[in-house]
Amino acid sequence: MSASLTAFAGVLLLAVLLSSLAHRTILSTAALFLVAGFVLGDGVLGVVSLKPGDELVATLAELALFTVLFTDGMRVGWPELRSAWRLPGRALGWGLPLTLVITAVGAHYLVGLGWVESLLIGAILAPTDPVFAAALVGNEKVPPRLRQLLNVESGVNDGLALPFVILFLAIASGAQNLHLGELSLELGLGVLIGVVIPWAAIKLEQTRWFSASTQYEPLNALAIGLLVLAVGKATHGNLFLAAFFAGITVATIGQRQRESFEHFGELIAEVFKLAALLVFGALITPSLLGSVGWQGWLFAILALVLARPAAIWLSFLRSGLSVREQAAVAWFGPKGFASVVYGLLVLGSGIAPAEQVFQLVAVTIVASILLHSSTDIVVARWFDDEREVPAWYGIVTRKMHRQE
């Protein structure tokens, strides 16, 4: 435990020191933690020694996913979803399930997995990660509708993919253990907890008897999140749906709480993300990367360059997006943090093909992080008008006008 904590602290400090450089170049903080975990793990140096069944792995996966789904939900309240649903609705309503199905077909026919396990992999790899789209979302020369599309989609699809992951994982664990009534109750209870607790807490603060000071305002949403987590664990409601709907509820009825928590919450979520990436990297060994065979690597590449692009192309037919915009949306479907944690959950689930599913998810995420984190700035510059026209063109044009 102490070695893992020391390793994380050291890599985190290095990431902070290199963060300014990372924003200007193809260097990626996510890739840094993934590679650091791989090098420090049992497969290479053995500094961070972790096994899939370790309590640290399960606990970190649970807390990290809860935190990220809570902050993701807080990005998109119902008013934003209603006012900007046309393009994100295509990506989420058509693109997400199509990506899931195409990925599952690849896993079944290329790798030979059963249909349930293939659909589970499709659900794990369907969500996109907003981290790699940061260069696009933050570039003011990128069309606003494209930035809004990527922002809303990446904030919502983690939560939308979650029920599919839970369902296929439950089926894969054995039909005799699957009780749809219990599963529905767990999911419904999670949604109820996620809506009722934030609503009650925010309405309570809005009464004349209570008021949060400026200093403590950022802790309001944190306290709500912790209460949702505690009640969810005590009642066996689904923690992750509770987190996602709690974030949406805060964003919908507690604009002040949302704004005060935004920066603080992003930092907390980022710490958990990076810790999970380090652990994920430590569980990836050279033998794991070699054991998937050429079929596994071919599946990983096709999941990135075929599944998402084909799904987006079909989803955005006659949408009004330019070819360049569609290409950017299609390429920036990286497999990141949510897929990492879903993969860790499967690894600790005890299902028979858990290791094979994790291996395929792992190589796909590794390929995605390396490919997408090194191309985000390049793709963002497609929309830089100053780069579309060479500098010498303007100089020559001005000289010609002066001569006239």
From TrEMBL:
Coiled-coil stretches: none
Domain Cation/H+ exchanger transmembrane: 14-375
Membrane topology annotation: Multi-pass membrane protein
InterPro entries for this protein: Cation/H_exchanger_TM (IPR006153), Na+/solute_symporter_sf (IPR038770)
Gene3D superfamilies: 1.20.1530.20
Keyword annotations of the record: Antiport, Cell membrane, Ion transport, Membrane, Transmembrane, Transmembrane helix, Transport
Source taxon at top rank: Bacteria
Protein name: NhaP-type Na+/H+ or K+/H+ antiporter
